[in-house]
Specification:
The protein has about 300 residues and is α/β, with parallel strands linked by helices. Helix content is about 45%, strand content about 25%. It folds into two domains: about 250 residues, Rossmann fold (3-Layer(aba) Sandwich), CATH 3.40.50; about 40 residues, no CATH class.
Length: about 300
């Protein structure tokens, strides 16, 4: 199968799956959580008993000789940005999909949920540099373009520079919106720009990890490579001391991220790719759980 037809097949699968999940589950949850930025003027109508006095339009009232009030409606339309980490660590996967593939599927779920509610969606692809920026637009064809860009990306960089990415978003996203930051967050020194962006936007961190980044199987000697730096280390995965140190470091890193997000009031959706997920995509449940928890907080 050619690369082009394989890409088309993957896009079609994601389109069918995510639209079904959005129609059946996510669209309503999304709408209940992201209700818009405020109120906008709609019309002037005659005063009715029970209307608030502060809503009276005194200019129209003076011209007509009858009391009129201003009517406002919720400003529903939002701008959603999907910022996706394309660094080499996203190519890792111990089950039937890589972290980068899960990121593409999550983008599709969030993007289709957004356009279902008439919101605009923009895309930022990054590694140690800004790889691609697509300004926010509406429409199903725009979402399919976003999915294609994520799946077919060939990043020039292998590392991760979250600070650069967050600073770039802060410059191009001038109007307050919703930012989903999809990454494994294997990057240093990004607390300051993360906090700065969170003060201006509704920032949601989506951490994507493979189960083997939390614990390793006992398979004896293995050569472990860092895909971003290329450094390789020979380890004994059957050594209890190594196993304990590996799991302890993974847990410390997980808790450190939770503390950072909590201290900056950044919402967090942790996604762990596990064996047995298959086509039963468990992270749909993770998204629904997050939306429900956030709605309760509101």
């Amino acid at each position: 199968m050619s690369g082009t037809s394989e890409l088309a097949r993957r896009i079609r699968f994601i389109q069918i799956f995510t639209r079904r999940a959005v129609d059946d589950i996510l669209a309503g949850e999304y709408l209940s959580v992201f209700k818009g930025r405020g109120m906008e003027f709609d019309e002037v109508r005659e005063y009715a008993p029970g209307d608030e006095v502060r809503l009276i339009d005194w200019n129209v009232t003076a011209r007509t000789g009858h009391p009129f009030v201003k009517r406002y409606v919720e400003e529903r339309e939002l701008t959603v940005f999907l910022a996706v980490d394309l660094s080499a660590s996203g190519l890792f996967g111990s089950v039937n999909r890589r972290k980068s593939e899960v990121a593409a599927e999550l983008c599709a779920l969030l993007a289709f949920s957004a356009i279902r509610n008439n919101d605009k969606v923009g895309l930022l692809l990054f590694s140690e540099r800004v790889e691609r920026f697509i300004p926010p637009r509406k429409g199903a064809s725009h979402v399919l373009r976003i999915i294609r860009e994520v799946l077919d990306a060939s990043p020039a960089g292998r590392g991760t520079d979250l600070a650069l990415t967050l600073d770039f978003l802060g410059r191009v996203a001038r109007k307050r919106g919703v930012v989903f930051l999809l990454s494994d967050f294997l990057a240093p020194d990004f607390a300051r720009p993360l906090g700065s962006l969170a003060r201006r936007h509704d920032l949601i961190a989506v951490s994507i990890l493979d189960r083997r980044e939390l614990s390793l199987p006992r398979l004896g000697l293995m050569a472990l490579s860092d895909p971003e730096t290329g450094r390789t280390r020979l380890v004994d995965t059957s050594d209890p001391a190594f196993q304990a140190a590996y799991e302890r470091r993974s847990e410390e890193r997980r808790r450190g991220l939770e503390r950072l997000f909590g201290s900056l009031a950044v919402d967090h959706i942790p996604i762990v790719i596990r064996a047995g997920d298959g086509r039963r995509i468990s992270y749909v449940d993770d998204l629904v759980r997050f939306f429900k928890q956030r709605e309760r907080r509101r």
